[in-house]
Amino acid sequence: MSITASRFYAFKTLKRIIYQGAYLHLVTRNINLNGRDRAFFKLLVNLVLKSGYKLFEKLSKEKLSNSEVIALMMALVELKILGKEKYIVFSQYKSIPEKDFSEKRFFKTLKKLENEKNLIENEISLPNFIINQIVDSKLDINSFTKNFVSTPMTGFFVLSHSKEILDLLNSLSGKLYPGRIFKNYYYTESFAEVLGILPKDCYIVISESSMLSVLLLEPKPGEKILEVGASPGGKSVFLEYVLKNYKDNLNKPKKVISVDISESRISALKKTCEKYKLKLINPTLYTKKTVFDVSDKILIDAPCSGLSTLDSKPDIIFHLKESDIKLLAKKQEDILNYYKDFIRVKGKLVYSVCTFTEMEGKGQIEKFLQKNKNFKTFEGVLSSKYINQDIIIKDGMLDIDWNALSLEPFFICCLEKVDE
Ligand SMILES: C[S@@+](CC[C@H](N)C(=O)[O-])C[C@H]1O[C@@H](n2cnc3c(N)ncnc32)[C@H](O)[C@@H]1O
């Protein structure tokens, strides 16, 4: 028997991610498998990435080729987490058509490891420095890792409320779960099916946590808004949606200056603008010569370690190095220091990162406030037509239990400039 297509795709994908640094969401975008095989492929890749880190460290010390390491991680996940019969797993992995794969070496190591306890568990297996970051940030590690070893559901926000779209959503109702915070937000396990039915520009795949930073900014028509770190534009789409839906007879929405430092990412933002027919977003490439007007509001979505998205992007475990966190924190500090000068007195600045490390979140803001006494944190209540319940803002931060709601625990903070 030769290895099944779903396992072989999973094997190739894992090899690219772990040894060549490819990104999960990019390599899996164009996988051509039918629904059932695709689901199994996704499950295997996710389980290996999420639960196999300790195993990977151990196997890396054995005299094995890259193909053998990957095949062993997959085989052990099938045996230990999925509880597959030994004969199925053994027959599947003996015929991997790769030059650096030896059936003999593979079986020798598999036999040696198959009875080893605690080698691969039905729970998160992370590099120590990431565990330390979770502990330091005071996130409850048990709830954080609770649903980690499952394939995440895809969440999307519906942008159109035409009768046609509402009818389509009704026809999909058995396949959709409601948003945890947002109205018009849905989760689905069968995204491919949902995708095939809904028109492409009527929804946006975005996390609920990500949308919260836009709400915290409270964008209003007539305001000058600067969006920093805008590409590929998930937040831009929601920002334009909020501005257009604002009932305001006095002010017309002004164009949002959506800045990014990367040329290729600005192209991605332009594509997003085309796809969603965005009229208010003005993609702007940052160069040393770019001059910005003083704005009423600034949203900074800074580059970060992305650890809050581990559930949907478990490949971060293999990409991120401990030293990267310090470099990213320095970048964020520079960005905050540069853009703070473009905000008017009584203007609002929202800083957000999709991570929970102290250094990139709370610590970063404390340092900023120490140096910039003319800024203070914002207190208030977020009550919006887009969310199910009011959210309190304490010390500039959203007072919500990210873990209990199974939301990605983003760090989002809102500051006000009190004087020059
Ligand atoms: C977290 S991503 C942004 C995601 C985006 N806001 C979205 O919702 O789709 C951070 C972005 O910041 C950009 N960036 C990094 N340094 C920057 C700088 N100094 N000025 C502007 N953008 C920057 C990166 O190129 C990257 O696209």
From TrEMBL:
Coiled coil: none annotated. Residues 120-418 form the SAM-dependent MTase RsmB/NOP-type domain. Gene3D superfamilies: Vaccinia Virus protein VP39. One of its GO terms (molecular function) is RNA methyltransferase activity. GO terms for biological process: RNA methylation. Belongs to the class I-like SAM-binding methyltransferase superfamily. RsmB/NOP family. PANTHER family: NOP2 YEAST -RELATED NOL1/NOP2/FMU SUN DOMAIN-CONTAINING, RIBOSOMAL RNA SMALL SUBUNIT METHYLTRANSFERASE B-RELATED. This is Fmu (Sun) domain protein. It comes from Thermodesulfobium narugense DSM 14796. The lineage of its organism: Bacteria, Pseudomonadati, Thermodesulfobiota, Thermodesulfobiia, Thermodesulfobiales.
